[in-house]
Amino acid sequence: MTSSTFIGQQAAWQEWVSALASERMHHAWLLAGAKGLGKGDFARAAAAELVGAGEGAVVSPSTHPDIHILEHLPANDDEAKKKAEGKPYQSKRNISVDQVRSMIRRLSTKPTMGNLRAIVVDPADDLEKSAVNALLKALEEPPAGTFFLLVAHQPGRLLPTVRSRCRVLRFAPLSAENLDVVLRREFPEAEATLREQAIAAAGGSPGVALAFVEHGLSKVHRLMQQIMSDGDSDFLLRGALADAMGTRPSRDRQLATLELARATLASELPTAASRRQPAVIEAHAALTRLSAQAPTYNFDSGLLILEIGGLLASAAMPREAAHQT
User: Fold this and answer.
1) Residues 153 and 240 in one domain
2) CATH classification of the domain holding 56
3) Both 134 and 52 in a single domain?
C-alpha cells in the first residue's frame, strides 16, 4: 500500500506509516473527518499494513485473524443471508456492547500470525452507550501489540475520555483536482461535464462525488438547488424530485441522495444570510439524523424523498429576499 492509494489523504497515510516505523507507536487512533472521505477504507488498509508490516504479504482486512472489525451487523437472519449473497441488506442501528465484549474476549489470547493485532471500529459514532464504556476499558488497558483505529464522522459524539486516549488523524475534504483524479480512476468513461457537476456538488467528499456519477444525480441536484433557492410552497418541485428519483429507486440511490442533500445544504451555509443560517443548520442536522437512520430502516422511498425535499424547502431563501436578488 502506498500514499498514492489515498488520493488527497497522502499526509494522513504518511503519518500512519511513520508511526509504524517508530519505536513508541500510540495504541489508539481516531480517524476524524466528514462522512465520505474514505476513513473506513483507510482504517482497514492501515490495519492490514500494521499486521503485515515487513512481511511483504498481501493482507485481507476482512479475513485476517489478527484484524477485528466492529461494524453494523445485519438486522436479522434474513438480512444476513442477503449479505452473504452479496445483495443489499439492512443493518442494525448501532454497534452493540456484545460485539465489543466479543472483541475484548479475543484480546485475552495472543495474536494468531504475529505479535500485532488491529481493532477497527467503523464508525465509533454508532457505538451503544454501554459499548462505549466497554471499549473505554480496553483503551485504558490495551494488551501489548494491540492497536485501535476508531472511525469518527462526528468525533464530538464520543466521550471525552475516549477521545483523550486517541491520537487524532484528521481527514480533510479533497480539492477539485483530487476529486477529478478519483472520478477519472473509478469512472474513466464519465463525461467531463458530469465530473464537473459531481465535483461542484460534492463539497470535497469523494463518496458524494462517486455516488453522483454512479447514480446519475445531475437532475436531482438541480432540483435540490432550485428548492433551496425558490422554496416549494406548491409541492411541485418535490413532486419533480420524486419523479427524478424514479418509481423504485435502489437503496444505494436513496442513500446517495441523502448525502447529496446534506452536501447541498453544507455548501449553502457559508454564503447564507445571517437570518437564514439557523434554518440551514437545523435542516442539515435533521438530514444528518435521517442519514444515520436510513441504512437501518426500511423507509418508503417516496416518503423519504418528500422528507428530503421538505427539509431543503425549510431552509429556502425567504421569498422577499429572493425577489430582491
Assistant:
1) no
2) 3.40.50.300
3) yes
Number of domains in the chain: 2
* Mean predicted confidence (pLDDT) in 187-208: 95
- The one-letter code for the residue type at 226 is Q
141 residue type, one letter? E
Which cell numbers in the block locate residue 275? 437570518
Domain end marker among 117, 141, 170: 170
C-alpha cell, 150: 476508531
**pLDDT single digits (tens) 204-233:** 999 999 999 999 999 999 999 999 999 999
* Phi/psi at 259 (5° precision): -65, -35
